[in-house]
Amino acid sequence: MIRRVTVAFALAVIVIAAAVTTTTQHAAFGVAFRRPTTQVRRVLLISLPATSWADVKAGVKAGDVPHLRKLFADSAVADMVTRAAGRKNSISGGYTALGAGGRASAVTPLAPQAFEVGEPYGESTAVDVYRQRTGITATSGIVHLGIEALTQENVDGLYDPQLGALGDRLARARVPRAVIANADGAQPVVDNPLPEFQRAAVNALMTGDGRVPAGAVGTELLTKDPHAPFGVRMDNAAAYRAFADAWQHGGVVLVEGSDLLRADLASDVFTADQLAVQKQRALRRVDALVGRMLADVDPAHDAVFVVSPASPRRGPGLAVTSLRAPGVAPEMLRSATSRRNGFVYVIDVAPTILQLLGLDAPTKMEGRPMEVVSGVVHGERIDTLINANADGVFRDAKVVTANNILIGLVAALALAAWFVIRRAPRRAPRRAPAVRFLALVVLGFLFATYVAVPLHFGRSDNAMGFFGFLVATALVFAGVCTLVGRRRPYLPLALALGATVALHLGDLLTGARLELNSVFGYSATVGIRVSGQGNLTFSQVTAAVLLLGGLVVWRRPGRRTVFAVIALLAITLVAMAAPTFGGDFGAAIAGAPAFGLFAWLLLGRRIRLRTVAVLSGALIVSGLLVGFADLMRPKDQQTHIGRFFDQVVTGRLDDFFLTLQRKGMENLDSFNATKLLWILPIVALIVWFLWRVPGGRLRTLFASVAVVRQTALALAVAAFLGYALNDSGVAIPAMMSVVFECAVVYVALTNPPIPAPPEPPPVADARDERYVRAPELV
Questions:
Q1: CB neighbours of residue 668 within 10 Å
Q2: Which of 35, 224, 289, 588 lies at a 20 to 30 A Cα distance from 645?
Q3: What is the DSSP letter of 538?
Q4: Domain 36-103+163-368 class?
Q5: 688 burial type by CB count under 10 A (0-12 exposed, 13-18 middle, 19+ buried)
Q6: Looking at residues 48-69, what average pLDDT do you find?
């Protein structure tokens, strides 16, 4: 019987996961997705550096950007996530990542040093210096003098992208390329001197050897203006002449709104008001140039792609992107990289350009082509994108405070439990109800951080209202659980754990809307992901479902209870791990063994060497199941999991091992990256005290109730694997410890602390003499 149930459990997980992963997310949510089907003749790539949708809206209100307003009204739009190799991209890093179609860095001071071949460089010319550094003779176009330093920087980094992958692919297809950009300018006195040359836009279309065949990046594009940042601005007439010359040859032409970049680079010496004035002046000049260029664009055959490869230097934020092309409706954009409507990544630009031109993207590219998604009222699109940015920036500013509050609550709960038990170690303390209520408040605080998301406190920048809501919701949460469960000693805790599990399962199965911009979730402004389940949520759900299952089996032992718990574990695992829902590969390979171990023990089985081997196999099989299920999806719908498995299947083992190395380093760095580390010693101390206190509240419970030992072991396995297999590292066991502390303190302070119901075996027939004795761990 037990063997049949175990096999049925495994098959159920496989069948459900397969069914889930073969269902596309857009079908699940009733949203129409469309990809451009008409091949375009030319692509005009307009770069608006450090520009947000709020900047555009301010320009629209002032009447300064009529041409951009019309262009965006006819385009599909999205917020651009500019993060690539680092937490915040420089403009050089953004362009380099765009050209690679993958995460690239550009820290070297040589990153923006590109020149027309005839330009002077020191005592020589750019073409001579380029030949000296590379051994390549270039007779025309633009050359990048820092290509070797830039390449070596990325080879030595954690991502090893193929620099110039977009340019190389276009060159092989004989598609012309040109770049018109010059953001040169140096401030005489600043804390961090800026490089004189700012021509990183070339990095977007250069080949791997640092060449672009046409365009203009020299001083002929500039004119003196004492009122502009650095005393110069773009000569729109010269820029238009360079564009017109390149545009008649077709292909891909990148034109940078370089005045916007100059304004952003000078932001360190501007007041906030003056920066806003300078950005709007720059945006007005860029709009005039855009108007002249659009007059030469044929909407029936040409595409106009607006991008912003980097967010502003002052603070975090999202940037603009839009696409107008034949067959592209003026809706919203998304990509398989983001898997969330209205968000795309800078690394998605290159594969989208190639798709527009009917070319296949190189396998080395990480980004995925953008898609058009409907569902937002046309007139509300820009406001939706502005609000998403505001929510993300607000969330990022409140993470540290939320972490501090959580650490304070964990410490307060530990001190309260120590104080009341120390005064009455062998009997139920009088203040025990208050401490149990505090344990529920801590769980309620975690709960409140997610339910606060739909209220959008960031749009009014109401920090006091946000934290007031968290406190009030935590108190109400604890009060409701206490009131509803008042007739049974452990029911309030079960309700709190159950509410935690229900909240997150419901959210994951309906699009993970509460994850985005939650302080314990993620944000698009600084995070690397904007969809699915975050690592801290995985920690909370895993700890809550294991503790809930153990508590329910303890208080209501029986076959039906065990089967119900196992079913809940299966549903939770699918919701967390399936690419269509949680998409959390770490949850699959860390949660499956822990859940499988717990189910095995609940079924009355012992742990032997064979069991360890089986559970190790479960770790591997669960990872393979999720990975290959994602790999079987179309390439433009695969998540990072499918791309990781594609590296293995296609024999790119260097990329595979580089990914493992990067994950390992991020794991180790987590010890210095999160304050949540402080939770672990606090919880360890209170558990040690409850174990050693006279009367042995935890020790007695652990020795007398088998399911307590089983739950503790499964939770320990989940915490260890969660730490070892996820880049969030130590933050995962730390967050699990929060939920664990709440449950342990609540149980230790419940009167009577060790309830008496016997533990008949939950599954086996009581007449079978093999199961007369309750199962024990070996």
A1: 13
A2: 35
A3: H
A4: alpha beta
A5: exposed
A6: 93
Question: Residue 597 — very low, low, confident or very high, per pLDDT cuts 50/70/90?
Answer: confident
Helix, strand, coil % in the chain, rounded to nearest 5:
55, 10, 35
Q: Are 78 and 385 in contact (CB under 8 A)?
A: yes
Question: Could you tell me how many helices (H) and strands (E) the chain has, helices first?
Answer: 26, 18
| pLDDT tier at 770, thresholds 50, 70, 90 | very low
For residue 210 the two structure tokens come to 């640092």
Collapsing DSSP states into helix, strand and coil, what is residue 212? Answer: strand
How far does CA 278 lie from the centroid of its chain?
Answer: 32
Question: How far is 388 from 79, CA to CA, in rounded Å?
Answer: 8
Distance CA(321)–CA(349), nearest Å, equals 9
Q: Which two tokens stand for residue 262?
A: 């100059």
Q: Tokens 């695969």 map to which residue?
A: 638
* Cα dihedral sign, 351-352-357-359: positive
Cα gap 221→114, rounded to integer Å = 14
Report the chain's terminal Cα–Cα distance, integer Å.
Answer: 22
> Tokens representing 420?
């009341």
Q: What is the pLDDT of residues 533-568, one digit of tens each?
A: 888 999 999 999 999 999 999 999 888 999 999 999
Which pTM value belongs to this model?
0.84
CA distance 510 to 143: 50
Amino acid at 443: L
Positive or negative, the CA dihedral 219, 222, 226, 227 is negative
Q: Return residue ranges of the chain for CATH 3.40.720.10.
A: 36-103+163-368
pLDDT in tens, 260-284: 999 998 888 888 889 889 999 999 9
Tell me the average pLDDT across 502-526.
92
Burial class (CB in 10 A: 0-12, 13-18, 19+), 59: buried
Q: 162: which 2 tokens? A: 């193929």
